[in-house]
């Protein structure tokens, strides 16, 4: 099954065309990377996939998990990690576990407190991203790399089938970046979560990616078609 299917997609901001007849698919379980020069439209494409920008008229279509995005309702199955996603939360007086738990609110309802099961889910995802010991820390007191791992934990709390990431390691040092990519790879290979990541970091992500796409001059090209299991070497 294709988790993402984009067919004949055009998009313009006013009179400026950004995307022209974009076609691509991402089958379930792939680790797919999107490269492209600054201003090529990579973030725009992600916003369209998240329904944050309207698709108007006859502009092609986007399907997620086999459903046209205009009718899509399964948003809990899609998670998103943005670049410096906690920049606006630096003075937010929430602990790491409270922040991750907030990702569950759609599930537990506004007026229900998290019970044992929900707290266990939070503990599990924090442990998974190596932030188990930081549960009680204020999110504003973490390093940039730690904050992005907490965002990743929150993105995982509802067990998504697709994880969209927009330059999630920007500003991180080498070690934090490598750790972050390894986590993504683990999530992809062990839990089967499909990954679609926008990045400029082609060199390092090549080792993890199945498919590498390039968005350039309004068009999408597959520059490294899918590799098979066992071709990734030692990560
Ligand atoms: N809301 C907007 N209104 C008008 N133009 C916009 C808007 N958002 C982005 N653009 C323009 O659309 C083009 C594509 O932007 P986008 O952010 O999607 O590119 P990108 O490939 O993600 O770039 P980068 O690698 O620099 O993040 C750019 O020329 C940008 O200036």
UniProtKB/TrEMBL annotation:
Molecular-function annotations in GO: ATP binding; ATP hydrolysis activity
Q: Does the keyword tRNA processing apply?
A: no
Instruction: Return the Pfam families for the record.
Output: ABC_tran
Question: Per its UniProt record, what CDD domains does this chain match?
Answer: ABC_Metallic_Cations
Sorted alphabetically, which keywords does the UniProt record give?
A: ATP-binding, Nucleotide-binding, Transport
ABC transporter domain span: 4-235
* Family annotation (InterPro entries): AAA+_ATPase, ABC_transporter-like_ATP-bd, ABC_transporter-like_CS, Metal_Ion_Import_ABC, P-loop_NTPase
PANTHER family registered for this protein in UniProt: METAL TRANSPORT SYSTEM ATP-BINDING PROTEIN TM_0124-RELATED
Q: Which family does it belong to?
A: Belongs to the ABC transporter superfamily.
- This protein's name: Metal ABC transporter ATP-binding protein
Native organism is: Enterocloster bolteae
